[in-house]
Amino acid sequence: MSIFDLDAYELMQQEDLSDLKSKGYLFKHKKSGARVLLMENDDENKVFAIGFRTPPSDSTGVPHIMEHSVLCGSKEFPVKDPFVELVKGSLNTFLNAMTYPDKTLYPVASCNDKDFQNLMHVYMDAVLYPNIYEHEEIFRQEGWSYQLDEEDAKLKYNGVVYNEMKGAFSSPEGVLDRMVLNSLFPDTSYANESGGDPDVIPELSYEQFLDFHRKYYHPSNSYIYLYGDMDMEEKLDWLDKKYLSKFNQIEVDSAIRYQKPFDQVKELEMEYSISSEESEEDNTYLSYNKVIGTSLDEKLYLAFQILDYALLSAPGAPLKKALVDAGIGKDIMGSYDNGILQPIFSVIAKNANLDQKEDFIRVIEGTLKDMVENGINKKALEAGINYHEFRFREADFGNYPKGLMYGLQLFDSWLYDDEKPFIHMQALPTFEFLKEQINTGYFEQLIQQYLLDNPHASIVIVKPEKGRTARMDKALEEKLQSYKLSLSEAEVKKLVEDTKALVEYQEEEDSKEDMEKIPVLGREDISREIAPIYNEEKDVDGTKTIYHGVDTNGIGYVTLMFDLSGVPQEKLAYAGILQAVLGMIDTNHYEYGELFNEINVHTGGIGTSLELYADVTKAKEKEFRATFEIKGKALYPKLDVLFQMMREILMESKLDDEKRLKEILAMLKSRLQMSFLSSGHTTAALRALSYDSPLAKFKDDVDGIGYYQVIKEIEEHFEEKKDELIANLKELAATLFRADNMMVSYTASEEGLKPACQEIKKIAQSLHEEPKTKETPCIIHCEKKNEGFKTSSKVQYVARVGNFIDRGVDYDGALQILKVILSYDYLWQNVRVKGGAYGCMSSFNRIGEGYFISYRDPNLEKTIEVYEGIVDYLKNFTVDDRDMNKYVIGTISNIDRPMTPAAKGDRSMNLYMNHVSKEMIQKERMQILEAQQEDIRRLAQVVEAVLAADLLCVIGGEEKIEEQKELFIEVKNLF
To answer: What pTM, to 2 d.p., does this model score?
Structure first.
């Protein structure tokens, strides 16, 4: 029997997706009306997703709250958090749920057949039969509720989504993104915030929430996706018999409405909050946004990705360069968002001023007109096409399964037209079409039509306002207090009782019987084998080369590594600047924009980074190696060009180009600020570790808050500091880029080895030959600072860290299990579920570093108290064998991820550099697979040692940090 013999389904379309080595089938389930799409191929990393079209009718965030809530228990799996139970006890390679402006998706992936079936089962049950109808507490926990701990306490709002969106609305980029979307589509659901506006979320009632599920979460409004190597007929049969056949087709009005184009450009202004000590000057965002056709035009969909590259995203692209040269903004960003019905092309100037608005528009439109009249740089178009085609063919999405990324792309057309699910999967003919158009005026015509002559546009300005957060917090506090005063004594009592009842619901243990309904694998389902390590040491004419022999589909992955150990501590930030400058500045043979295009025409790209490798065999001595790395990838016949371009960047860069250096520093400062606000948890953890760890201090100096402080100082006093900057960059380049200081990491098949060896010889001969002076090893000084960094945010990132090996406790593989236990049990329950933070994590590594961090957390001191409670929790840790198995499986799931060829090479090289042997990995794996509860209880001493270090760093709202400043040694502004 085959998929075509199943009576329950009607085949609507069949496509040969040879570009992706797949066969595509689109079915309709006859009884329920569910749409079902299959991509059949030999990929063992199987993907299942069910999605629903969920256009929001207001900004209460109901699609987002629903996405969280359906994963809090269902008919067949009535535990409070089946999602967490799956994370703990499944071999998933991806498990999550996502809310978009117009859809909500529930994807899972696994290489294990039994596990994959379990994940599908839990997710189907969750979306169609959630426990939200039985337990209002789910809505109050995940969405919003009044929190009143005692009758005379202050009334507050709490809720996971409410706090998450408070964090999202603290970021100016977040405010801008929403304003742009809302401004261009006022008559459609895109005018509303699907994630939820914190000011509006509390307007959502429980009944409205349930109505949303009743309306949209029906198979007739569903999109089901299956990808990979599996018995498709069996899966379709199971979906039909177990779920879909229980529903009759109904009419669901969820169509995404088309916005009628504007007659004239709209202009909007909005404020965002900065802290009381930040400057309002150079802190405005100007944006120019145009609607580009629809995402159902496959040629336009790709053509504008190419134009985005050629006009805006590539370094030296004309729009970016024109705005920077005109002094409008210090960081020019852009985007082409084609994940909605009517895609948006945006040009954004960050760190600009309100009075530059007219110039901003004039420069953009003048540059575009010039390009239409005189033609776009053909090399830039060629580079843009090759850049995107290389990525499409390589299909390397890092940690994300290929099938997941293809599924997300399918929705870019499928959601809006049932008959066009595959148009973006067949991209190679479109790339060929676009190559043929380079010299025809096609791209210039697109600029004229969609950018210059198109009034469906908006100019959105987001400007700073000091103390806005504090003002809004005060207004909210007054609003809540006056609401409380309006209540009778009985109503106030009821709020206190409701708050207690929610906490009791959260603390109530799930019954053993319910827990056992969640399917789990056994330890016997897990291989005892470790993933192979591909390291072969070679001497290529005196250059030490580590070769990783794996099949790479004809692509060579090259990393040139230069030892940084001779760089003194006071010069480390300059190494960070050198890394950021190289490839972004003119060379002796190319302007920096031409250089980038030349690279992308012939290769898969070149990038630079600074990397740190701890010697795990010398953890007590804290020995590590730091390297300056330049990485690139190319097809074997193009390896010569790749190495030529790497040499051009390392040896021919004009490091005395003052104008360009100033631009790069301004951009760096802006990008670091953005990353600190979006990844405050990892920034705070690194900073806290730097108080005691030379490795972390090094990293903070080249990529963290320490680095930012140097960048800010040089950028703000550039005229006085530029000579010293240039001298340092030149000296570092001459010191680092020598053949006797270079090592190479190379990933390719045997066939790609010979051409690479020839190029390694050549580049080694053309590097600096400065006589090697006696290098003084870099001595790094650490100092305990326990800092509280104030921002304009409404949430905190709380990091508590320490080194357990320093306090006499050894590393054990069971610490990887502890990470899963804390992140999805103790910390999850106390920091996320009860505390209302969006996330919480912990980590322990082979050199003894441990940390606990919270993400978008409304609390500060309360979270530190939770961390302090971990020791007691572990001393009393008791679970049954089934739960212990789950933790072990969840841990292995984090380790056994399918790897792309490039990832296999990177992992092997990391192990080599960190001195991690095959035996160590095997020992760690066995410690995990054989762990019992007493092994976890023993880890209380690890946590005791981490907490005993008493190292704390918090990035958070200025009011909260001032209020609890006695927790810190130093309190300062982050920006």
So the answer is: 0.90
